Amino acid sequence: MKRIFMVTAASLMVILAACQSEPASIATPSGGSGASTGALPSDAAAVAQERGLTPDDIYAAVKTYTPSGKTDPFIMIASGGQSGQVLVIGVPSMRILKVIGVFTPESWQGYGFGGSGNKILAEGKINGKDVLWGDTHHPALSETDASYDGQFAFINDKANARVAVIDLRDFSTKQIVKNPNAINDHGGSFVTPNTEYVVEGPQYATPIGWKYAPLDQYKDQYRGLISFWSFDRTKGRIDTSKSFQIELPPYWQDLCDAGKKVSDGWVFCNSFNTELATGGVESGNPPFEAGTTKNDTDYLHIINWKKAEQVVKAGKVEQINGIAVIRLQTAIDEGLLFFSPEPKSPHGADVTPGGEFIVVGGKLDPHVTIYSFDKIQKAILAGGFSKDAYGVPVISLDKSMEAQVELGLGPLHTVYDDKGYAYTSLFLDSAVARWTLGGPYADKHPEKPWTLVQKLPVQYNIGHISAVEGDTATPGGQFVVALNKWSIDRFANIGPLMPQNFQLVDISKSGDQMKVLYDMPVGMAEPHYAQIIKAERLKPFQVYPQVGWDAETMAVDPKAITSEAQAHIERNGNKVEVFMSVIRSHYSPEQVKVKKGDHVIWHLTNLERTPDATHGFAISAYNINLSLEPGKTETVEFDADQAGTYTYYCTEFCSALHLEMIGYFLVEP
Amino acid sequence: MKRIFMVTAASLMVILAACQSEPASIATPSGGSGASTGALPSDAAAVAQERGLTPDDIYAAVKTYTPSGKTDPFIMIASGGQSGQVLVIGVPSMRILKVIGVFTPESWQGYGFGGSGNKILAEGKINGKDVLWGDTHHPALSETDASYDGQFAFINDKANARVAVIDLRDFSTKQIVKNPNAINDHGGSFVTPNTEYVVEGPQYATPIGWKYAPLDQYKDQYRGLISFWSFDRTKGRIDTSKSFQIELPPYWQDLCDAGKKVSDGWVFCNSFNTELATGGVESGNPPFEAGTTKNDTDYLHIINWKKAEQVVKAGKVEQINGIAVIRLQTAIDEGLLFFSPEPKSPHGADVTPGGEFIVVGGKLDPHVTIYSFDKIQKAILAGGFSKDAYGVPVISLDKSMEAQVELGLGPLHTVYDDKGYAYTSLFLDSAVARWTLGGPYADKHPEKPWTLVQKLPVQYNIGHISAVEGDTATPGGQFVVALNKWSIDRFANIGPLMPQNFQLVDISKSGDQMKVLYDMPVGMAEPHYAQIIKAERLKPFQVYPQVGWDAETMAVDPKAITSEAQAHIERNGNKVEVFMSVIRSHYSPEQVKVKKGDHVIWHLTNLERTPDATHGFAISAYNINLSLEPGKTETVEFDADQAGTYTYYCTEFCSALHLEMIGYFLVEP
């Protein structure tokens, strides 16, 4: 069993600088089979020739093309990065079906422009101030028995340490939770195998509650904080009163994954600044990128959340800003936290389908290091640990490691298929590595265990990687998607800000036959991770179940009107309450008259029952736009502080007389 | 020459109600040729069979599939509707390359979260208040001699009557102009053939300046207002001081198009509420949808903008809220404005490539009505007009009309190709109609002139239609895109809010051989119109031309630092000015310390010169995120009103050590 680490930081920096100035050169895909059985329709053959398509291209085209009326069998849920949103993408057609508004207002879907979305966005305020964007990184679909159940999705906001809940009955955001004790995160969202908890792992250490402390107090004051947000599935909401946090050393924890099956009850996180570097290149210190990469290893964090639950129940916590926090010393004393060395500033802690192994991508080490949960358990029982500077027990690598596989430059993140293969992204090599698992997976594939099988070039510089149900107990195989960070020359030039490039990869054949099928530009987001679920698991509404449906409470609003006959206006002093019906192709009422300064409460109900019969509602100049799907009711409340003659109208093209669907909103001075 | 109008409003309403409850039934595409020459690679044949692809599907797949590294020959610029943005889409691959932030803040591209975008968005304030969304409808690419020149794009905001300028060197918004005299629009943006003016046509009448006036004063007080925004190409900005407006009757003008070639100097707009309906269904009046559709005809507006320029020069204007306005009576007296009847609540006034004809879609009449510019000119010279209720001269239909072609139910909008064909969207029939132009186009196609050639079913209910350069003097042919409004069953179910459906249509063959090639869901926007330009006309930057480039002024900022050695912090009382360099993979400085209450001015320069070497910059909790493309400089200014320990970090994945690219922002209490 080889263990190879980079020799010196200096030579490492030289290698990285060389790698970063040019992307890895592109290997052209291997030529296709060339054999000709079956017929290409004559006009298609002419087109293929005229367009210069190779046999591989034709294969890829027929593998991904989705005819009108046929739907994608898989749905990818991808983070939007600093767009603050979540993308919904059909696979294998690689078409964006929806961008869900989460942390950033989005007016097409009426999120944050007067309707119930305003209330949800306000849940994300920080010390009373709006923060109307987010940096979403890792979506987590809800799981039952470690497989996706298609009910909810969760997503984190790295920039501000917040977590959101998305309901997959209508693919809309229902809740935002602001972490009161952390101000950034990264290792989230991830769920425990029955979605008991939504895990939010920390990243850049700060004092708890991001209180001010000068950097020379880094070792004593700065901490990491991993959060276990308790999820109430019946309510569809995180319950902060049942949630807890564990204090960690300031090691810049990175990615986390929950154990499952044999490792159910545990969570694993990697880290990359055990050096405790605090930067300051301007003062002659090594920059962060050098200071944090000095050591040969950092620490894999091994956390027993099932036991932590008991510790919380026993009251061995400190209540900090309303959350139960297990202090670091308690975590150590109660045997909740263990470390094991991991090379080298790693990225990605990814648990295999049966929970037996945890795979860590070396990032600055060319290996993946595979840890055995069984060995870790044995080591914990045996005891006799060394300790880190904070007193956390350290399980030596020879006691925890199962294997290492040398893959190439920059291994980051690993997912799995149903044939015992693992797929790791190699950022610097700009490639996807397929390699074989060992142990109980050895019989699933023809190759030897713990062996690199193929390195497929991708364009360019892949970050995360996603496989069909590939981080669950029941991976689906068939496809993997490379979430490439640089697109460079892949797409027509549209200016200095280039899209990301998702590449769909065919993994349906064993051995070294992976191939890139399709380039998908992502030009409104920077996805970091994505999960791919079988579409059949999803059971969304086609229309809201009843007329008068409140999408925030996900129930009927008893005060909503349900017919045009009920439309009316109530006046009470300077309060004007409008009850408006919405149906093709008119509003009722069509004339709303108020006086300047009136406080207006405007309720609307879309009375339609036909799928796709969505109406919009916008009021000129008042920053109001709602999206009203069939059955939905919304309420917008505002002061009529601008006198004048305004129009409200339907913003979502609904009928032949859509342009005629308007009303006058008169504000008398 | 037939002229057929719908008989009664009542029977019309019955027909419309029936049409709207079910979409038009789908005709399945005709079977393919079946002939087999040329070879389908064996594995491709197996996949095609397994996936149930027809010969037509295979043709479509090889016609649209774009292999990695090959780029789209055409670029579609589409409005985003009530997303407030503009979409950039590659054709024929039908992939979104970018969503440009225009009227709505967008954090992925750093638009509206601290950088120069904030200043541009603030130009759109209405009476001092932020309106941070828009309803974009009709993009207009800049033109030279009536062909696209690839330099600028313009877009309107229907909801608030604003126009934006997008610079195609970096596909970013540079200016927003708020129309001070109108509060909604629709017939915009359109450009005159050398982009002398960006035209913004009105829609729902209000008093000028949207002053308050009760609806019983509709006839006397309410008006339409068409705006001619003067464009200074050298500065790349609209110059409101050289712009003018023309007052129109309150007829709800709808779509406009500029004359070109033989009709250069004129603009044509249709309208749809000459009935002067004011709604009030709640009070027993006919709803707007009935009141506005009562009459058999409305008025095509024929406007001489070249002559209007002279009228403005001669000072025969009223200055209203800073804009020169030609009052309605002056427009009549000076011979700037003429009407001609158009059936029936029409939509779409679309000028043919040589400028000879104006095609109006009947909407509630099954014909397109073709007006002859030559006939209109002759009628104007001959005189002897009747007048409308406002005294505007009316050219009778028999004097202005060249032809009518019966196409089907719900003709809306027409574009053109290079073979003398016209393509009209039929909303209610859910089809694209191909028909033949006459006059100088008669020889270009094999069929008789003014004849319907093919109706191609689309899915579903097409609104606008777009053709390659199809609204210019030099259409490119090859493709048309149907901008369908309802998708219903075309895509996997992702909840009640369904995407729109763009369908790419192959028009490369003459006769009745159009076919639908590709369904493209649009799930973050509701495009209304789009233009398709040949990619070779676009000359965007790959990186900004020099380090220290200010993307707002599109020039070097002389105060921007251009090297890491120049990075520093200046303190002056409670003002802290940071000059920060940004390059892989660190910022300098990496530690910024201020006191609570300090006023912070933070300049950043991306020193990279490599294409795609973009960095982000976010400050946790402060609602700040910037996108820094190679060479770009940005400045963000704020008060450090929250004490604590914050991090700033790179939000755009830039390198292997991207996660290490951070700094600490310490705000001492």
Task: Tell me the radius of gyration of chain A.
Answer: 27 Å
Alpha carbon gap, first and last residue of chain A: 83 Å
The CATH superfamily of the largest domain in chain A is known as YVTN repeat-like/Quinoprotein amine dehydrogenase
List the domain count of chain A as a whole number. 3
Helix content of chain A: 10-25%
Strand content of chain A: 35-45%
Q: Indicate the mean pLDDT of chain A.
A: 94
Described by its quaternary structure, the protein is: homodimer
Can you tell me the CATH architecture of the largest domain in chain A?
7 Propeller
Structural class of chain A: mainly beta
Number-wise, the strands of chain A total 45
**Largest interface by Cβ-Cβ < 8 Å:** A-B, 203 and 204 residues
Unreliable spans of chain A are: 1-37
CATH fold-level name of the largest domain in chain A? Methylamine Dehydrogenase, Chain H
Q: What overall geometry of chain A do the principal axes of the alpha carbons give? A: globular
Largest sheet of chain A: 7 strands, mixed
Supply the number of helical segments of chain A.
10
CATH class value of the largest domain in chain A: Mainly Beta
